[in-house]
Specification:
The chain contains 4 helices and no strands. With 74 residues, the protein is mainly α. It is globular and about 40 Å long.
């Protein structure tokens, strides 16, 4: 995978659990009920914002419906 990233000029971003949860909450407040792991895409995009092309597309998939109660302690 590292070879593919280097060959394409890509970037690897590490996202901490607390960053992921903050992003998931931000997306939820914006009306996007995505799966929590999709919040990784949003977090990485915001971390790399200055380096992204304009316009940039972030694909957020899945539904947060099943994850919501478990993540909110219900």
């Amino acid at each position: 995978m590292l070879d593919a990233v280097a060959a394409t000029g890509g970037t690897i971003v590490a996202v901490a659990e607390d960053e992921l949860m903050r992003a998931w909450e931000v997306l939820g407040r914006a009306g996007l009920n995505v799966e929590p792991t999709s919040a990784v895409v949003w977090t990485a995009a915001t971390l790399l914002l200055e380096d992204l092309p304009d316009p940039a597309v972030a694909i957020l998939t899945g539904s947060g419906f099943r994850a919501s109660p478990a993540l909110q302690g219900a």
